[in-house]
Specification:
By secondary structure, the protein is mostly helical. The protein folds into two domains: 57 residues, no CATH class; 67 residues. It is 68% helix and 0% strand. The protein has five helices and no strands.
């Protein structure tokens, strides 16, 4: 990057206030930064940074209960069910008399707790989406 490019992007030299308030004009990772003026958008570092920012935003919205896309909500519910089903099957086998080792119970307990947490987050997001 030349010295002229650095000066043209500095906040002091922006042409109007609208460009100064636009986060994509100054922050790597924000959508639109890699396709700013004079760029083709094919820079692999900028592309990965933008993808990471988008994934982080989706994860943040999932756990904060602000997801509005039904596809993400459906995938969250499926993930929770997939993670909790092994624990339910293990408890079912224990009731029938087939016991697992302690290592298996620890593993299934951890996976079950994670699945239960994901299902609680799913229900929280679903309630906020409906109401």
């Amino acid at each position: 990057m030349s010295k002229k490019d650095n000066l043209s992007r500095s906040p002091k030299n922006l042409k109007n206030k609208g460009e100064q308030n636009n986060p994509s004009a100054l922050l790597p990772g924000w959508p639109g930064y890699r396709t700013r003026n004079g760029r083709s958008g094919y820079d692999p570092i900028d592309s990965r940074t933008e993808a990471a920012h988008t994934a982080g935003t989706i994860i943040q919205k999932l756990f904060a209960g602000r997801i509005r896309n039904p596809v993400y909500l459906f995938l969250l519910g499926v993930l929770g069910l997939v993670l909790i089903i092994p624990l339910l099957l293990a408890v079912s086998e224990m009731v029938k008399g087939n016991l697992f080792s302690m290592d298996a119970w620890i593993f299934l307990g951890i996976i079950g707790i994670i699945g239960l947490t994901v299902l609680i987050i799913f229900i929280n997001n679903l309630i906020k989406l409906i109401f």
